[in-house]
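U., I forgot to send this yesterday:
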Amino acid sequence: MKAAFISRYGGPEVLEIGEQPRPDFGPHDLLVQVKAAGVNPVDYKVRNGAAKVMITRPFPLILGYDVSGVVVEAGASVTRFKTGDEIFACLDRSRFGTFAEFTAVRETDTAHKPSNLSHAEAASIPLAGLTSWQALRDTAALNPGEKVLIHAGSGGVGSFAIQLARHIGASIAATAGARNLDMVKQLGADVAIDYATQRFEDIVRDYDVVFDTLGNGVRNRSFGTLRRDGRLVSIAGIPTANLMREWGLPFWVEWFAALANFNSMRIARAKGVRFEYVSVQSNGVQLAAIANLLRSGAITPVIDKVFPLDQAREAIAHCEAGHATGKVVIEP
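Result:
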């Protein structure tokens, strides 16, 4: 099968397009013909080696986590899907590989594709949707009537998170570039902040939740926008030492994570707020709930550009440049 893969870590030039074996699949798996695959920041982090401490698979590595496609064959123990079903899924971090003509997906990571979405639209959803769901609903426990600040509101995660927060019934402020301010308002933001010309901390005060998708200095500045006992949930930068410990990574990795997050932890304690890091988990049950929101029109996919598989290098580079509005998608 044709696939986009790497045989070493590096820049865009290390990504190859060529033949790879069809993936093996077990009794609890689905063999899926890929119709579309979403591109995410984790894809270039895998490619450049930034995520290699969490990857144990040998080269060559086929990239890609998001998929929408058709079940070609179901494992012997699969009960909820059959050959011919249209599905979408976010693969587990240990078994990525959707930038290909076929991929293998766990039944428990999979949901039926909403029939009102194209495969490209469906492929844009899983990782961004689950990230937003697990950050805002599970970790932040965002409630109706609460106020939430969402950074990078026009990005793949941000554009979904705004719509989810609107569905929950929260009041939303979002940062974006000047060209996307109207877009984030249309998605549901009550306050749209131009990050290039406005300081969000001068506008946002006493909020309940911050969803940090950027990290670095933005995260630490964001603590000042929260009320006491507020919650800041981050998906950017280095995961916390607690997560590294849960993943069973070496002690030195846990130590490095503690050092990298020291300032954020210190500021959170001083401000009397809660700081947590979220690393998305594949979850077919949650994805099915998201599918219901997509079917109802409560959430609409936002796609920046669709690339053919032969241009996977360009697709990932476009995502890496950080200027995409919504999601980038690859079609085999």
